[in-house]
Design brief:
Helix content: 55-70%
Structural class: alpha/beta
Shape: elongated
Radius of gyration: 24 Å
Strand order of the largest sheet: 4-1-5-6
Number of helices: 9
Length: 248
């Protein structure tokens, strides 16, 4: 859908008449399709992804404890205590299952969750029939009036687009206050942070598998430094973009 702003009759036929719209999506077509897709995933699916991944983490832990032993602890690690060396069993399922569950949920939860009616200009305003397109544009205020929430996918080019400014101004003029203002760079930063945490865990796990010992402080600090450097770079870009909002 976000591939380009040019729509077809087939895409318009995906829309349907409805008395109430749950979310009106306001965005700029100058923003890349993948950042907008990830932003929508964060807006609509992140809460469910966090809950399901935490549930899986607790479930895996309960199945791996000694009293249950439903899942084997297949990793033997050398530990040192009071000057003595002993082998400890450690489970690895949590390293794999939880991130996969989080990723699948954040990407596909919309297919199993409660159905929501969403306004997206490309699908709800005809892009090839001039008469229907004009009627749809003239009815933007009515679409906004019957919407419960305005979802703004903000990017540096957002307020440079006339229709974006019109949609936000109309929403405020109507006296509505339920706005989800989500910078697309925040979604990218969230994805980078999640990927960084997962990469850090994998690095520590691989180090333990190959050495058969607890990860040393040096390895842990080096891995964390690399991950934090990448995250900090994206955070700098995000903050830099946000600082330009007052100027717009």
């Amino acid at each position: 859908v976000f591939w380009s702003s040019a729509g077809t009759s087939e895409e318009y036929n995906l829309s349907q008449a409805h008395e109430c719209i749950n979310n009106f999506i306001s965005h700029s077509w100058q923003t890349g399709r993948w950042p907008k897709f990830m932003t929508l995933c964060i807006v609509f699916n992140s809460r469910a992804a966090l809950m399901t991944s935490w549930f899986c983490a607790v479930l895996v832990y309960m199945l791996e404890i000694e009293t249950a032993s439903a899942l084997p602890r297949s990793l033997l690690i050398e530990n040192y205590h009071a000057g003595e060396i002993y082998l400890a069993k450690r489970g690895v399922f949590g390293y794999v299952v939880c991130p996969i569950v989080f990723l699948l949920t954040v990407l596909f939860w919309q297919h199993v969750s409660r159905r929501q009616m969403v306004f997206l200009d490309k699908l709800c305003i005809h892009q090839t029939d001039a008469r229907l397109k004009r009627a749809g544009i003239l009815g933007l205020a009515a679409f906004l009036r019957h919407s419960e929430r305005l979802v703004v996918l903000w990017a540096p080019s957002y307020f440079e687009r006339l229709w974006c400014a019109y949609e936000l101004a109309t929403w405020i003029h109507l006296g509505k206050s339920h706005i989800c203002f989500m910078p697309v760079s925040a979604a990218a930063l969230t994805a980078i942070c999640s990927t960084g945490l997962f990469a850090h865990s994998v690095i520590l796990l691989v180090a333990e598998v190959f050495t058969g010992k607890d990860v040393t402080m040096e390895v842990a600090v080096l891995s964390a430094t690399v991950v934090c450097t990448v995250v900090a770079n994206f955070a700098r870009i995000h903050v830099s973009e946000l600082s330009n909002i007052p100027n717009q």
